[in-house]
Amino acid sequence: MTSVQLSISGMRLGIECAEPAPAGLIGDRLAPFVGDSAQAGAPDVRIVWSNADPTAAAIGDLVFDPGSIWRLHRSASGDGYTAVISYSDGGRLTPRAAVIEASRAWDLCRMTEVAHPVGWHSLLNLGAGELIVRTRIVLDGGIIFHASAVDDAGRGVLFVGHSGAGKSTQSLIWADAGATVLSDDRIGVRVSGGRATAYGTPWGGTAGIARNASVALKAVMVLEQHPTNELHRIPVNDALPLLLVRSFLPYWDASLVNAAMDTVQSLLEAVPVYILRCRADASVLPVVRSVL
Question: Are 146 and 283 members of one domain?
């Protein structure tokens, strides 16, 4: 039996497989997040991985179809969910897919896919792992944003934005200025005791930056490209919908959505939010630093 432990966004994920782990189960994306398997205590998420034909899995009724690489179904037996992830076939259940049979709390996930001998990487490194993390973290007091984040001498800045808003560009600008970039596309955020912390995740964007690091957040920037640099603080009520649409919400479960909204509300009470209209160059640095 093989056991591997990951630490992602303040959560421990324990991966188990009955046989020696195939090459590609833990790829370059996940490797920086590997932790101490001997650490005491149960993981937050237990992932039991199997090298088998995913099409043998029983699939219940369709619950959520985002129209991309995955689909979520009711569990054919029990009270959980079955997710099908397939980059080649639009989320359809084929031999090239991965299947996740998750408990309702996503603390136990049985994952099935076929490992190939050459050039194979488990979908745990991609959409399958991301789906598990971004769902479970909502039940654990956190949320994943479509964002980049930087550690500027201990001062964390979260740059949220849709695709093309400039998250990766900001990451490179701040890296050139000596800041540490946590990730340029997916950031985990937790709020506790009135303090917010941002975490890097394995899933970087255009710049491919993904670090196993964290920083206390001092500001949240909603990115907009603009020919000049402008920074405007926005009220909590205006900021809430802007952050929600730039996060990954579990739309298939109303209770999970409510939990995610509570986390974002707590974030807004802890950290100021700004609209940042900015140029794609280093002139943005003093503008942002003026409010840290």
Answer: yes
Show the tokens assigned to 198: 């941002």
Residue 244's CATH number: 3.90.228.20
- Residue 146 and residue 129 share a domain: no
Cβ atoms of residues 183 and 149 within 8 Å: yes
Rounded to whole angstroms, the Cα distance separating 67 from 1 reads 36
Flag whether the pTM goes above 0.90.
yes
List Cβ neighbours of 226 (8 Å cut-off, separation of 6 or more).
277, 278, 279
Residues 130/187, Cβ–Cβ less than 8 Å: no
Domain, as residue range, for 206: 142-289
Q: Which of 106, 139, 172 is the last residue of a domain?
A: 139
H or E, element range at 112: strand 108-113
CA separation for the pair 252, 84 (Å, rounded): 15
- Alpha carbons 40 and 117: distance in angstroms, whole number: 34
Instruction: Give the pLDDT confidence of 21-71 residue by residue, as tens digits.
Output: 888 999 999 999 998 665 667 899 999 999 999 999 999 999 999 988 999
For residue 139, give the amino acid letter: L
- The residue written with tokens 């966004």 in the block is 9
| Residue 248 sits in the same domain as residue 156 | yes
